[in-house]
Amino acid sequence: MKHYRRFWVVMLAILLVTALGGSWGPTAGAASGKPVATYASPERIQFVSYSKSWSQAKLKALYGELLRNLHGQELAYLSMVVLYPESKEGEAGYADLSYSWTEDDRSDIVMDKGTTIVLYDANRLNTVESLSATLSHEYGHHFTHYWLIKKGAQAPEQSGHEMGVAAGNQKRPGPLQRRRIRARLYAYVGRDRNYGGRLPGVIRLEYGQADDGEFAQARRRTRVLRGDREHIRVPRHVAAGGKVLLAEAERTEGPAADCF
């Protein structure tokens, strides 16, 4: 029997802590009425706006902004980006994604196509720049879950502590740190403007690859990235390591799962 699991990944606008939760119902936040504008990308990603502040031309520009994020074959699994005019207390947006399996041990788990990214407050946030941080953040969830599943055949909620223990990496970053990298920081990788062109020249340190001494040293070398709605302190080695992550992923059919 085939099993399905849907993830509803929320970006909180106030506390800015991303929560992972299971949802078995239909996509939340469905709008009533007809869209104001739509745009279909060459990859057949549907950009749909229910806000009068967003025209087809602006949706096309938002698609261009999406492509500035680190991306690869997982882009084909994104189906829709929806803009809602209203704000929602505590949320800037979310990514609705799902995966399925037939074996009880989930050894054949695959990510399903059809991820939807929802962006709120589109009446007020009426420029590409003002929505870019949330769009990037939510696509980061999509990217990360795709490669975790493809490379490690693991459900995302199993990819923290369990993977570390299985690999004998108990002294490496703990599950909370790993989850923060996956859910909060990775979305910013590949956006050159956020780093001001000051990335380290040597890209070596990544979670799951650095020993304890290297990791401690890397954590001391941090900088702050400022998005439209977020102020997040990012270890430099994470920002740098992600620049080559996609190349590694496509060369080896996916990065090592615990690099997230």
Would you give an account of this structure?
By secondary structure, the chain is of the alpha+beta class. It folds into two domains: 3-152, no CATH class; 160-259, no CATH class. 31% of the residues lie in helices and 19% in strands. It is built from eight helices and nine strands. The chain has helices at residues 56-67, 128-152, 161-166, 175-185, 192-195, 212-220, 236-241, 245-252, and strands at 3-11, 37-40, 46-49, 78-83, 93-101, 110-111, 115-119, 222-226, 231-235. The strands form two sheets. Strands 1, 2, 3, 4, 5, 6 and 7 form a seven-stranded mixed beta sheet that branches. It has a two-stranded antiparallel ribbon with strand order 8-9.
Structural key phrases:
single chain; 260 residues; alpha+beta; elongated
Report a brief summary of the structure:
This protein is an alpha+beta fold and 260 residues long. It contains eight helices and nine strands.
What shape does the CA trace take?
A: elongated
- The N- and C-terminal alpha carbons lie at a distance of 30 Å
Return the domain count.
Answer: 2
Overall mean pLDDT stands at 61
Percentage of residues in DSSP E strands: 15-25%
Number of strands: 9
What is the rounded Rg? 18 Å
Annotation field: number of helices: 8
Give the % helix: 25-40%
Q: List low-pLDDT spans.
A: 12-31, 158-260
Largest sheet: 7 strands, mixed
Order of helices and strands: EEEHEEEEHHHHHEEHH
Secondary-structure class: alpha+beta
